[in-house]
Amino acid sequence: MTSARTLFAGLATLALTAFTAPAAMAQDALKIGSYPANPPWEFKNEAGDFEGFEVDIVNEIASRLGTTTEIEGYDFRALFVASASGRVDAVISSLTITAERLESQSFTQPYFSGALGVGVKDGTEIASLEDLEGKRIGSIATSFPESWLQEREAELGYASYSSYDTTANMLTDLRSGRIEAAVNDIVGLRYAFTQPNMEGLSVTVEIPTGDQFAIMMPKDSENLEAFNDAISEMKTDGTMAALYEKWFGVAAAADSLTLTPMPIPTSAD
Hints:
The protein is 38% helix and 26% strand.
């Protein structure tokens, strides 16, 4: 009888282990890639920890999925390789959904409709897109702003274009006069220009583009649907609205992408 009990207990333990193993695996931290100098979307604080609007979003998603995140910083261009290769589970960095990116990556539903801004030194006579003609301009390598500018090179007539690996380097060159205008996400530029070492810089042109920001993931990721469902829940239960107001200081419009649940995108429209 003792042997039978022992055998039964052993089998029960084995069965319990088999049934609980997937749950344990589900608790593994999500590996998140991020560009570490992109406030207020994501940035490192003085303690070296990531903060920002999208950091809060992905941490909330992880919490709803019963896990946590491990966020690692990458150069902007390296983010796409990290996602395509499966080195990370997801990428946050105010990333625009584009048709080209959808060929090799997947995206969650968008939660922000972006616009570009033209940043200049105070006193520079650039107050419209027409004023970029003959000017030295710059943006971030492989970014949506870079593609937008290069597609309109003939139309805008700028004198030269400089491509940067980091926002810090781009703004350093703007301050020193190596470039006369920096074109980037308008929210990020305005936030950067409020920092103590950025006096004398301002955004003089806003360019509505309708580009949509979302979380990028490896193509057809097994986590894609769960991420998207979590974002829909956050939009409907008030969480996304609270995060938006926390980081941008204003309420999101009721009909905005920030508050409207949407399906997983299959095109950039």
